[in-house]
Amino acid sequence: MAVFNRVESSRQPESAVYDEVVLAGNGWMRELNPGQVLRIVDLEGNQAADTLFYDADNPEDHYSAVRTITGQRNIYLSAGSVLRAESGKELLTIVADTCGRHDTLGGACSAQSNTVRYAHEKLHMHNCRDTFMLQLANHAEGGKYSKRNLAPNINFFMNVPVTPEGGLTFQDGVSSPGAYVEMRSYGRTMALISNCPQLNNPCNAYHPTPIRVLIWDC
Amino acid sequence: MENNDWSVSIRPGGKWSGKIGRGKRLRFTALGAGANVSVLLYNADDLTERYNMPDTLKAQYTAHLTRGHTLMSDNGRVLAAIVEDSLGWHDTISGYTTREETDAKYGVTTYQETRNDWLRSGRDNLAVELVRCGLGVRDLMPNVNLFSKVYCDETGELHYDTGHCLPNSTVTLRTEMDVVLVLSNTPNPLDPRTIYPSVPVKLEVLPSEGAVGYDDYCVGFRPENRRAYENTWEYYALQGR
Ligand SMILES: [Zn+2]
Q: Which Pfam family, just one, is annotated for this protein (chain B) (predicted)?
């Protein structure tokens, strides 16, 4: 398979202006200022950090998976990838990445997609779309964020290879404890993360784990 | 016009949107080589439910669409299914063109100068039709590009197959829900050709061929599809429909 593009960062956690742990199954939503750098750390390895971005000045312009991959003509995200909004606007650039590859085709889990993918009996289980919707509900001032803002997202630390024949597969184990991805925001960007609670697929050994989120001013 | 055929020819750069009941067959025919029609689908009774590219792809372990595949919503239901396909591959991972891309690739055109021969962009077309349907640009999502083949190599690099769509290629969708269908006959953003495609596409809306059950090809295509159909049947059963 393809090379993994690993680029380390020189930023030190001590100099971060924000540093929090997000437990599995929890959400996180926060605005980034122009130039700020967001790091997401996969603390125990092979956890999925389902992430969406919005132009905070124009929230109807959401992150676009297809605009992003068409812009770079490659389906995998890594250092150098420009994360684009639906309008084509550049939201952030990935500036460091010790995992080397991230997925943006697989989307977030939901109660309903769990019934389709696994069994009708999975409907009650906690899922990323519920986490996204709770965060949107708590940031709904002025009707800025609603279900209509839920676009297909990024799955940091996940590997979802596509074959030349058009097949889609899930391959575990590309991340490792402490692996991180770091991105710089161009403008004011709203970041929304669901730390995935999925218990139905083997990529996290059926054991969702915490992530750590840090922000630097430059 | 119950049970009557209806058709429209969507000219190059053209657009269309409309509400279509469930159980209809939508037959798209490329009236030339190299067509591309960008498609968005919404539940007509709840416009916040819409085509979901990731849920569709991961449930069916595929990165392209062809006969047997269903187009799933974000609520685990089947908006439509591909029941006939002469091509074997339709793209849903490369999106639509913007005004800037259209100008850069094909040259700047204005209505002032070239009247209705000016070159439309996918985003502008879809935005107009979304607003007409009570939606807006926040509802722009990854779409289906009928007639286009985009594949990637081992490194993940995307490639557009310029020889894929031959004249008179057809693909037929069968609606499983009452849908709002939004169409733009504009180039695939990865089409490397710098001459704006001039391929009209015919859309025929045909009556269904009877109730869909467990013996249906698309229902039985994968267990995931069966469960998505069951979710859809339950949704209408709860409404007494
Ligand atoms: Zn999840």
A: DUF1989
ipTM of the complex: 0.96
Residue range B64-120, pLDDT digits in tens = 999 999 999 999 999 999 999 999 999 999 999 999 999 999 999 999 999 999 999
Subunit contact B48:A74, Cβ cutoff 8 A:
no
In b/e form, how buried is each residue of B87-107, taking b as 16+ CB within 10 angstroms?
A: bebbbbbbbbbbbebbeebbe
Domain-wise residue ranges, chain B = 6-237
User: What single-letter amino acid sits at A105?
Assistant: L
Tell me the torsion sign for CA atoms A174, A175, A176, A179: positive
From the list B95, B123, B227, the residue facing A70 with the nearest CB is B95
Which of B43, B50, B58, B159 has the highest number of chain A CBs within 10 A, making it the mutation to test binding with A? B58
Whether B63 sits inside 8 A of A164 (CB atoms) is no
> Taking CA atoms, what residue in A is nearest to B225?
A116
Name the β-bridge partners of B204.
B7, B27
The answer to whether residues B15 and B133 touch, using CB atoms and an 8 Å cutoff, is no
Please list the rounded mean pLDDT of every run of 10 residues in chain A (218 residues): 83 98 98 98 96 97 98 97 97 97 97 98 98 94 90 96 93 90 98 97 88 95
Nearest to A185 by CA among A82, A114, A75, A100: A82
B contacts of A160 (beta carbons < 8 Å):
58
CB B161 within 8 A of CB B88: no
End-to-end CA, chain B: 21
Report the gap between the CA of A16 and the closest CA in chain B (Å). 33
Instruction: Determine the pLDDT at residue B3.
Output: 54
E strand residue ranges, chain B: 6-10, 15-20, 25-30, 37-43, 46-50, 70-72, 78-85, 144-146, 150-152, 158-160, 170-175, 179-184, 201-206
Contact: A86, B74; criterion CB under 8 Å: no
Q: In what order do the strands lie in the sheet with A179-185?
A: A18-22, A211-216, A37-42, A179-185, A90-97, A82-84
pTM for this model (two decimals): 0.97
A19 to chain B nearest CA, in Å? 31
**Side-by-side strand order, sheet with B70-72:** B6-10, B201-206, B25-30, B170-175, B78-85, B70-72
Question: Which chain A residue shows the shortest CA-CA distance from B75?
Answer: A112
Contact B231 A115 (CB under 8 A): yes
C-beta separation of B97 from B187 below 8 A: yes
Is the CB of A112 less than 8 angstroms away from the CB of B77? yes
What is the C-alpha separation between A215 and A183, in angstroms, rounded? 10
